[in-house]
Amino acid sequence: MKDIYSSSFSARSRGLRSWLAVGAACLVLSVSTSKAEQLGLSLIGFWSRGDGGAHIRVERCARGFCAVSTWTRPGDDDEKPGDRLEMALTLSEPAVWTGEAWDPQHNRSYKLRIEVGPREMVAHGCAMAGLVCKDVSWRRL
């Protein structure tokens, strides 16, 4: 006769282990994010694009992070204050974030890798399945 109690316990145990693994992963990401912030390597804050043509504010949002344009050089028709880039990023190293970004103004998605330093960051983004890529440098304000 099959022991229904032990098989039921085994299934619950597997479910509990899965939830514990998810919880541990969240804790590691939370600790890693805090460590990056302690080192002054946080994405959050105000940034100026390398060419000086735009300023953004990076903040937490529903997708993870949002970069909101706060100022653009007069005459720039492609960007305007209030535009936002929604980013779903994972801290893959203490100063490197990787993931995807969504630009609702242009209806485009990108693969994204951001390297953050104390006073600068470089965003490497690719669209169209990696056929079009661009690096943009930013300076912390």
List key phrases describing it.
141 residues; alpha+beta; Lipocalin; eight-stranded antiparallel β-barrel; 1 helix; globular
Q: How many individual domains?
A: 2
Shape: globular
CATH class of the largest domain: Mainly Beta
Q: What is the arithmetic mean of pLDDT?
A: 81
What does this structure look like?
25% of the residues lie in helices and 47% in strands. The N and C termini lie far apart (71 Å). Mean pLDDT is 81; it is low at 5-33. It contains 1 helix and 8 strands; from the N terminus they run αββββββββ. It folds into 2 domains: 1-38; 40-140, Beta Barrel (Lipocalin). It is an alpha+beta fold and 141 residues long. The radius of gyration is 20 Å and the shape is globular. Strand 7 and strand 8 form a beta hairpin.
Briefly summarize what is shown.
Helix content is 25%, strand content 47%. With 141 residues, it is of the alpha+beta class.
Summarize the helices and strands and which ones pair or pack.
Layout: H1 4-38, E1 45-49, E2 54-61, E3 64-72, E4 84-93, E5 96-103, E6 108-116, E7 120-127, E8 132-140
Antiparallel strand pairs: 1-2, 1-8, 2-3, 3-4, 4-5, 5-6, 6-7, 7-8
